Here is the input.
Amino acid sequence: MMEANATAALSPAKRLTPRLAAWAALAVVACGLPFAVTGYHTFQLTMVLVYSIALLGLNMLTGYNGQISLGHGAFYALGAYTAAILMNSLNVPYWATLPASAAVCLVAGFLFGLPALRLEGLYLALATFALGVTMPPLLKYKHFDAITGGSQGIVIIKPDAPFGLPLTGDQWLYFFTLAIAVVLFVLARNLLRGRVGRALVAIRDHPIAAEAMGVNSSIYKSLTFGVSAMYTGIAGALGAIAVQFVAPDSFDIFLSISFLVGSVIGGISSIAGAVFGGVFIVFVPNIASQISKAAPWAIYGVFLIGFMYLMPGGVVAFLRVATAWARRCFRKAG
Amino acid sequence: MNIFWEQVGSGLVTGGIYASVALALVMIYQATHQVNFAQGEMAMFSTYLAWSMIHAGLPYWVAFALTVLISFIGGIVIERVIIRPVENAPVLSVVVVFIGLLVIFNSLAGWIYTYTLKSFPSPFPSQPLFGFRYVSPHGIGAIGVTLVVLVLLYAFFRFTPLGLAMRAAAQNPASARLVGIRVGWMLALGWGLAAAIGSVAGMMVAPIVYLDPNMMSGVLLYAFAAALLGGIDSPGGAVLGGFIVGVLENLVGAYVIGNDLKLSLALVLIVGVLIVKPAGLFGRALVTRV
Amino acid sequence: MSFKKVLTPAAVAIGLVVSAAPAVAAKHYGPGVTDTEIKIGQTMPYSGPASAYGQIGKAEAAYIKMVNEEGGINGRKIVLMSLDDGYSPPKTVEQTRKLVEEDQVLFMFGGLGTPTSTAVHKYLNAKKVPQLFLATGATKWGDPKHFHWTMGWQPSYQQEAKIYAADILKNHPHAKIGVLYQNDDYGKDYLKGLVDGLGAKAKTMIVKEVSYETSEPTVDSQIVQLKGSGADVFVNITTPKFAAQAIRQAYDIGWHPVQYLNNVSNSTGAVLKPAGLEKAKGVISTAYIKDASDKQWDNDADMIKFQAWMKKYMPNDDPANNFNPYGYTVAQTLVHVLKACGDDLTRANVMKQAASIHHLKLPMLLPGITINTSPTDYYPLEQLQLERFDGQNWELYGNIMGK
Here is the structure.
């Protein structure tokens, strides 16, 4: 009783401040890091952002809408190759490849989502698995060699900082990716916190009730596939520019599986989870290699299982529980 | 025309590989309503255990029997120790645990046995029987073993009280507990049987494809497709699905689109079938009550 | 003129000369080098679909361990930092950047794979970091004019394929050729070499080309297709597992063409034995390294030394695996270059020494084959010898081909 009164007595400004402070701190760290670390680490951070965007796409589809995808690597590849081909063959500037990749993947995702409407659970998993497995052979197909570069891949040149800004290529790319990521995340947040998000969750949890309430399931599901593919495709384009190289075998089924693993570990039905997932994908394999030179992936597997024991709902769910518990402890103490 | 039948023959042999792994997948699915993505790697690891035994001097059938037994026990242990803690976790979290197992088995095999190719003996004679050249004797033998396992499995689920109890535990754990079925041990038993079937699959496959840690990585997708094509809850369907996938892939590669895209086309066809018949060829359509 | 006025400038002059002298013999160190160690970097696929090739890295590390135990090079130990890239180019970029920018290695050594090495090709050349002795036979690495800092090691795939093409034109001029190749840069590079080597006759002689992916369980179906095409010469461009399957399957279905096998997969113990020695009888290949599972080298002093090294430093590994003598020999080339650098261990000098190897004979290379490089010739090994399998051993025949 007293606690409730105490919180009510706090003015809105006081309640907001810790949150605002946290966001401000995050912004300062995010913007300051590239100047404090080497180009290599900046590159890694850029990749964390790239994978976060990709995972956000997957979270939308699998977490919020319940449509499992074991093949999102294919959309990542599609976005990456679109960017690479445009930059290499048509000399399109790097920033212009993003809308192109987005458009291509949006359409591709929607077109895949349409027939996938008839498939549920395991069957959808198989269909998406098939998509993920098909991508490398398609990219290597000899009749496409002239555009795709075949097995040799395509080399891309990294952009320099524009307008003569005193930033290295790595730093500029990081900030560019950061800006895109922020925009995409805010967009996703508005989408998923509103009517659309509620419709998606309703379709996931109670499809028949949702239909009965007037939610056009087919359109929503197909569109979600499209938007999800679009996000992952944009990530693919950014990734291609950062790595400066695309080749068919970089986009194999293990990439799709890594996306799923990263999403689940971060927290598949959340937006922030995508960032934790991105951090996991980039850093945990390296940590595993340091622990065991001989069988690093065995250590990685142990990490996976351990994470699922400790945090079956992902890092985000765990943090939610942990902060609630911490708050309770503070209140009791204070 | 000869070549056509040779393609069919070789398709039946690879189909047999897919069928046997698909059987293990169906087994686990019927017992736990989950698809174990680590099935292939577990089978591969069992095969390495058999190889170690044969290399140490044990006769083939002794090693075979011991491997099946050890795999059975291993499967039970894995279920009780590793899968049990996440029993109530969301489906995708369990999938991540499976992926973790997959990666662990693959990495351990590579570390312990290195990546050099190893040959694995076949218990079947090496000369073609009756001069039948379209399928090798080992191929016929392996297909035969798969069919025997299938029949045993079918009989187990259909005619034994234990099999019935396992199906009940998977379909409706709560009700099953009410009638006295130890659901936890049913799940463990399911895993044990699946691991045992997997080890048989591995030992039949290894003489054909040679033993190395990545032996089963390519097979899993086909086995998964085969199991779904046949109906994920139908062992017979899974086996038939395996043969269909094997032959289809070969014929598509040889006559339709060339090897580069045969995988893509085969998968498109399978997905097409699933769109038309969502429960697979022999599966039972699930009817959800509102 | 006072004596002092002459003395001071003379003293200064003498002082200058004296202080300049040690500068001539001074040490020049690039990044990663101290008086006691030389740090070099490497990326290798220790996991993933190409993990079999990780064995090369393992062998190289074991050889370097032996060198270090015997005192190192000019008193310095070699620290080989070999990181796993899982054969994934983005990972290769990450690991390479880590090694160059964070660990400050002197140069990159023996990276495996064409797409992986391509991913860091421009970066390393832009940063002027040597990319030495790449473990791939892609022809494009020998381009000193455009990529001064990159060098391969083994005879290129195209060159090997051209040798087969020449042999076919000479001994089987009316052949119908069927080709099985792995559907990636390695397989396609071989195929190109074969086609180029056959010249105008390629179109008429090659009756069927079939590919396979490494994710496929078997290549049995592809062999059936080749048999059905009526080919009587079979060019087998496969990695060990699939090579064994192909040899066995061809024999089992009653197809007995003249078979040319690429030298990646011609190990007697690791490939032919699993396939069935009698089934591999008559297969033709090329070699530049001694096969440790071939009995003809049993009494060869260098082979005995190699086997002893394996026993001591890689007791759990299989000498029959061709990757082991390969790694052993590349490591020896590395040691040769580092020794030649003396105390001038800068990146520029490493590259200079790597581009000035003259007739280097190494123990596991076939007799008559040497390593040669020059500022315009970035192909260390260009010689191969044809060999035919007689059911028990590989019988070398003909002359050593290549430069």
Observations:
- Chain B touches chain C at residues 2-3, 6-7, 10-11, 13-14, 17, 107, 110, 114-119, 133, 136, 205, 208-210, 212-215, 217-219, 222, 249-250, 253-254, 258-260, 263 (CB under 8 Å).
- DSSP finds eleven helices and no strands in chain B.
- Chain B has a mean pLDDT of 87.
